Amino acid sequence: MKKTKVDMRGMSLLRLEDLTHDQMMYLIDLADTLKKQRRFDGNLLKGRHIALVFEKMSTRTRCAAAVAMADEGGRSEYLSATEIHLGKKESTSDTARVLGRMFDGIFFRGYEQKTVELLAEYSKVPVWNGLTDECHPTQALADLMTIRENFPRLQKVKVVYMGDGRNNVATSLMTACAMAGMEFVNCTPKALAPSLEMMKAKEKMARLNGGVVSMDHNPSTAVKNANVIYTDVWVSMGEESQHDRRMKLLKPYQVNMGLMKRTGNLESGKVIFLHCLPAFHDSNTELTAKTGALEVTDEVFEAPFSKVFDLAENRLHTIKALFVATLSRKVV
Ligand code: CP
Ligand code: NVA
After folding, report:
1. Which of 111, 167, 192 to mutate to test the pocket of ligand 2 (most atoms within 8 A of CB)?
2. How far does CA 302 lie from the centroid of its chain?
3. What's the whole-model pTM score?
């Protein structure tokens, strides 16, 4: 089927809700195409130069952005927030105006959503959110792409997110599923539930797109008939003081083989496991070597139905699609 082109040149992506349904699906279609035709000497971003302003650590998002630009003939400059004046000697709005005079776009990762909004307001160039405390929109694009690679008819898919239901990854995934008209269950303890206001908004968004968003505090009932079990770390960057409390709250939400079996879809191969990564599974870090698995066991993480590294790779293709759609000179 011929895919429809959408003109997104000059657009920022501060949160997923900035996109229309068509824009979101266009980015995923474009990511599919760029993945199939992977080029290392492309020219769609030739002459484009972007700043990667990162306050928090990153492996996938940072590398995906750098490789995406290089693959298509563009350039990127990594600016650790500890090495520039942002927010210390210089206000965000002043830094934004300087960067906007030198770069064609800014990819930001950090704490406050307000910072990425100020960068967009003052720089006058496209600004993309590479994760804030509030949301992780480029992750959600890769999530949808990976889900569709496994289940082409998104509207028939049930996604269950297990764990910290109000974190950046959970809420962006919930938004993506609502926008795509899918079934999404946020399975989380009451103490970590998104606000009632947010749940109502996402339930309504899903309904309008022919999908269903709901919340369930009980892992056994939530995962029934699930096609995708998704989890994330129990303690997000910047929330380290919550560590002990989270371990207690989230232990019943660990993704293990027992939980995967309760989907009822394991034997028929109709369920996959996803994690945005990095993940604490058995003995893979100094921490879990002592404590054992946290949010997911090795058995699940290493299983054939675990698509976590496909998802990690798809960060590259979706971020490249975003840059190409918003920065290239012609509509691709
Ligand atoms: N999933 C994700 O955003 O990974 P990084 O923190 O490594 O960028
Ligand atoms: N929720 C996690 C996602 C990391 C990609 C965090 O914010 O640390």
Report:
1. 167
2. 21
3. 0.97
